[in-house]
Amino acid sequence: MELKRRGRDRAPAHPESALALLTRLALGCVAAAYVHGRVQRTRLIEDLVEQRTADLDRTTEALRLHQRAIESSANSVTLVDARSPGAPIILVNPAFTRMHGYGPEEVLGRPLELLAFGVDDQPGLHELRNAIVEGREAHVLLQLRRKDGQSYFEEAYLAPIRNEHGVTDYFVIFEYDVTTAKQYEAALEHRARHDMLTGLPNRVALADRIDRALAFARSDAAPVWVAVLDLDYFKHVNDSLGPAAGDRLLRQAGERMLAAVGPTDTVARTGDDEFVLLFENRADESQAAATVSKVLAAIAEPFGEGGQRVFLTGSAGIAGYPGDGGDADSLVKHAQIAMYRAKESGRNTFRFYLPSMNERALERLAMVDAMRHAMNAEEFELHYQPQVDLASGAVIGMEALIRWSHPQLGMMRPDRFIALAEETGLIVPLGTWVLRAACSQAATWQRAGLGALRIAVNLSSRQFRDAALPALIAEVLRETGLPATSLEIELTESLMMEDVEMAVATMRALKAMGVHLSIDDFGTGYSSLSYLKRFPVDVLKIDQSFVRDIGQDASSSAMVSAMISLSHELGLRVIAEGVETQAQWDYLVGRGCDEVQGYYFSRPLHGRDFERMVREHRQAA
Q: What fold, for 385-401+425-620?
């Protein structure tokens, strides 16, 4: 009992100790909580600081990256202040200096208009100024000048920079140098409207210029003249000298034409060797004729090419507004028709268009079309004129002469169509057909027992200038089986003299094959005796114009005698063409002529008639 009482009595003896302990515990908890809170707040602050620092670093890096990107840009970047008068420049990148030539210190704070100093007003500048005033974007093409005065083209993009209220405070301008692209575009445009060889206007540009000239002329009924000019026999020159030399001659011819006409006139190249002249301010035909005559005279002056003198001539046709047409196509067409008439009149001249020429032009076109058809329809055939040995009277050969069995016009002699075939180029396939058909017929007659008859074939100038001619003849001889010694190629003096070196080389190639060569129509060309010695020919054919006057004109008789004597001195055989009378025959026999051909003995005959004539002649002998 006492013990319990003591225990109860002792328990509340120190109440302040328990309270202090509790207080301390409470304070410890509070302190711990406070410390913990401070630590948490410190950590949060530290995390926030780290995050803000990272954000700042990222923002700074982004700004640096943007700055480096602007500075590294190949295109000009300019920042202007839209709030200040004149939109002064406040920032440029290095590409700005490369493009404009101005350094930052020269433009910062200066009005944007500085960049347009010294250039003509242009739509792009108007658009740019309006966009700045209106605070909107724009895309323009400008032609500006650099600081050094050099002109260039640029594309400029203007972009507004707006504040939070939507007001434009600044503009950023991106500029791209497009000079190369514009130059390329201009070159393409020039190429589309100009001849690449001569630099002269082409058909497209010519048509535009004629249309413009006609538009002005209609208001006051002023004449406009169009002349089509074609270089005579230029293909022969081109074939003999080569395409490179031909191109140089065409350029020189174009330059001479330009120099011969007025500064406001046009010279255009519309074909290989065809030019068109357009001129105004010529009151009548006499003034137009004087201009064309001046151009033709300029072309006729000798050209220097490869150390030699080359002579060219031209043929021209003239048509005038309003009499000969009211549009470009009509004027050019009618001038071209007149040009063909000038060629038919002897070339190196001009003709004015006449309405009657249309009918002739249509006939010409119809003839060309019919000739093309005739080659496929086998309307061409060969006739053969005998060549007779004067000593024995025997037929020893024949000349192959082409004829055209036209379904409507009947049998046509070559003088009706050969010149046209030459101009159109049809002479080449036609000549190849003649060569092949003649050799084939001669080989057939030899196999049929008519003996070693020699077949003579004329070559056109185009055929002769073809580098593949020797190979063609070798192929034909191989195909037909005709011995080379039985083929005689006839060449005219003028043909050989146009390019002597080429002629000699080709003739030597043919001689090496065994082919015989003859000079046809001797005395009508312009060869000299010195050249005659160089040509490796076998036969000289005296032109019928000399033979026809034998016994009537002493000069002609003397020339025939001299030609025979000269030929024999050079070791050549002589054939007289166009023998029609006994007197001519007797004279030639007396002068020692080797062979003759002409109506006195026989006209040209169809193949079957020629064969019959030869057989009958041999039986009679």
A: TIM Barrel (3.20.20)
